[in-house]
User: What shape does this take?
Amino acid sequence: MKMQPADNLAEVLKAFNESTEKLQSSYNALQARFGELNLELESKNSELSRRVAEISEIKDYVDSILESVTDGVIAVDMEYRITAFNRAAERISGLEAKDVIGRRFGECFDTDFGVDLEDVSGDSASVSPYVLRNMKVGGREAFPVRESTSLTRSGDGAITGAVKVFEDLTELRELEEQARRQDRLATLGQMAATVAHEIRNPLGGIEGFASLLSRDFDDGDPRLKLVTKILEGARSLNRVVSELLMFTRPVKCDFRRVRVSEAIDGAMGFLSENMESSNIKLLRNMGPTPLYVRGDPDELRRALLNIILNALQAMPEGGDLEINCHSRSLPEAARQMLGTGLNGTWVEIAIRDSGPGIDESEIPRIFNPFYTKKEKGTGLGLAVATKIIEAHCGQITAANSPEGGAVFTIALPLED
Ligand SMILES: Nc1ncnc2c1ncn2[C@@H]1O[C@H](COP(=O)(O)OP(=O)(O)OP(=O)(O)O)[C@@H](O)[C@H]1O
Ligand SMILES: [Mg+2]
Assistant: This one.
């Protein structure tokens, strides 16, 4: 039987309809699956965001712990690349986290990390005991630290790097050194005072005779140079001896009413030669009314002399020396703390130079006996000045002035 064209078309249409239905149902199924996947994705997404928030919270928590500890913490990966560097590490090393994170430890520090990561295995001890080492950074002098290094591990126990926890021992060492010095000073004090006393007399003789001898030589005479050397040596020795004596002896003050400007003039009188030769401009402001304190004029002059001399020495090329005096009333609370002996009004003498100023970290130490950065210094100048001012119930403080240079402020109770 032969197929008619109409039958043929019906067949094709039927087949087409069937295919369309199949396609429709596949499409429906796909859409339903797509909906499911979308839901799944959404829930995964919110789960992921929750995890990210949780991790960021944990990270903030760990960071805040790291930042709050006073010990330095540095973490590295297996290539010694720094991955964590807390604030204490910044303070101790003088480096900034933003400059060192991602860099190798050896590029930032001149000392090795303290553990050989190429040589560690799964059963290596995780924490090394505390050791004392010197740490060195850049051009800075090496400083002592107490440190411990631990290996860091991933969840499955594989070693991922190491972390170093360290403490700066500089201050502790200095305190120990200071205590040792004080100890030595206490035992040797009496002896030193006696010896110094014994040295001073013949030394005065040497200085006197050398000075007489120097007059016998003409300016061009080579022997004059030698005598001048003897004179310089004797003078410097005399100064050390006097300061040592001054420091080891208790300050015995002969208290009277002292006009502050006179004490300052007295100290300046000793220094007029230094001032002229070194191109120093003196700016002096003694306040509108004369100020008086109760004190020993010689001792006060000595204390002022030490501070002004330091100021001049800080300006070898010349500069401004500014001395300001004014009175200052303390707030009631501070008056009460001081007790009834003092009326609560102070004279403040501020001595400012235009030299390089003092390193902030150094300021607490400059008053320690024997702390000096000068080749020929004894480091007793400020210690002596402090001792004198404290014997006058006063205080000395040092700071850097905003206009540059150092400013030393002596506060003494005002005498009505
Ligand atoms: N005006 C200043 N500017 C900068 N640094 C200062 C100033 N005054 C003191 N210093 C610092 O403080 C240190 C201690 O001062 P101090 O007067 O006690 O001893 P010295 O001056 O070094 O020695 P000496 O006074 O016994 O000759 C100085 O070596 C210096 O580093
Ligand atoms: Mg000095």
Summary: The chain has a mean pLDDT of 86. The longest strand covers residues 143-153.
